Amino acid sequence: MKLTRRKMLGLTAVAAGTLAGCAPVARRLAADLPSDVSLPTGDVEPTLRLVNRVSFGPTPGELARVKAMGRDAYLEEQLNPEGDEPISLLLQLQRLDAYRMDAAEMEELPEELILSQLQQGTLLRAAYSPHQLRERMVEFWSDHFNIYGRKGSAAFRKGTDDTEVIRKNALGNFHDLLAASAHSPAMLAYLDNQVNVKGVANENYARELMELHTLGVHGGYTQHDVQQVARCFTGWGIENRFLHAKGKFVFDPEKHDDGPKEVLGHSIGAGGGEADGDLVLKILANHPNTAKFVCAKLCRRFLGHTDDATVAKMADVFLANRGEIKPVLKFIFSEENLSKSQPSQKRPFDFVVSALRATGAQSDCGKPLQEHLEKMGQAVYQWPMPDGYPVKPEAWTGTLLARWNFVAALSKGEIKGTVVDLPKIEKRSQEFAQAILGKADVRHIETASQKPDLASVATACLASPDFQWR
């Protein structure tokens, strides 16, 4: 049964600290469940701040593990992931047609099925992969190079794009990622470049390439640059010829404008063919404004602000390392930057995944769980605009009731395919409370006279303002 706002406000909140202490007697905060998700006050315990920024949040035992190994070793582990995913995760992923089948074969399947499988695979990896920084960067780049899964055949192509473009390059080099995206049939179709031919150049991909993928809207390009870049990408399309591997990237010289061009002051001679587009990608990837634009987005996502001085230093690291992402992330997660960072509100996807991780939930991430995420407004790969789901907190202020309904259903075992072991949460109550509240010591919270229902305790913990932010 769903909780209404009135019913939730009528309950006594046993907030995160409720579970503090190892005694069987639960503890609670003397306050009602929050009526908003405003930023709570007080400092966050440093290890939790680090784990929250690097990952989607701690799992049972994660904070103790990170403290034991040290922040530097933890960052090294996350920046350089080794080994495959856990076998349990691989087995679930291997059952999904969206990642196994060719796009042309999948088109015989229902679009809704494939979109659900894409969402399932993304949730499974985010919740259960030990390579958490890679998963957070996959989320970041999936927004940056957003593809709307309901346009044309995008749903059938996105699985390959996710694997070969985003995941393959998530912690790699920005130019390589940009080039992979430019050759992705999913991206080319989404931004209409398959109809970009000489004589009638389509500017859609060229414009978004500069505005959203590289320079930024104030990055110094002109309408003339858009037109010239569009000419450079004429003939970049998707194979559809008889007896050819349909659905793959193809360059058609007959459709390419092979005349001379000029992009951002760079002359591109006649007769370059496919290399015209490759040269544009190099120019854009190495442009100082691209470094500033990308680093500002990374700064906002991981540090909660876009301070000019921090972004400028980060851009210098980006340029000095020729677009390598790892040095930039290492700079972001320095003790100095994290200590000065600002809280960042969890978007619905982030909130759902962090709740699964905090509770140690076992989930197949199937349709019942996805429906909660959809009600919060962030169904994976279903943002229709090319700019990706919004980051600013005000975009998600209307999700509060849906969040409460989700954590209530999660705690009570009402989401089919998802199980939370509440007795285990009670046994590790101190750790759970710290992971939610973020305080080093939560033992000061007043003991309740009666032991509350564990499902209500878990609900209140996950609904608390503290858990809405990282």
Describe the structure.
The chain has a domain at 5-44 and 344-468. The protein is 51% helix and 4% strand. The protein is built from 25 helices and 8 strands. It has a two-stranded antiparallel ribbon. A two-stranded antiparallel ribbon has the order 3-4. α8 crosses α20 (348-359), α11 packs antiparallel against α15 (275-285) and α13 (204-213) packs across α14 (223-232). Mean pLDDT is 88; it is low at 1-33 and 443-450.
Give a brief rundown of this model.
This protein has about 475 residues and is mainly alpha-helical. About 50% of the residues lie in helices and about 5% in strands. The protein has a domain at about 5-45 and about 345-470.
By helix and strand content, what is the structural category?
A: mainly alpha
| Number of alpha- plus pi-helical segments | 25
**Biggest sheet strand line-up:** 1-2
N-C termini distance: 29 Å
Rg, rounded, reads 24 Å
Q: Give the percentage of residues in beta strands.
A: under 5%
Task: Extract low-pLDDT stretches.
Answer: 1-33, 443-450
How would a textbook summarize the main sheet? 2 strands, antiparallel
Quote the average pLDDT: 88
**Count of extended strands:** 8
Shape: globular
Could you estimate the helical fraction of the residues in percent? 40-55%
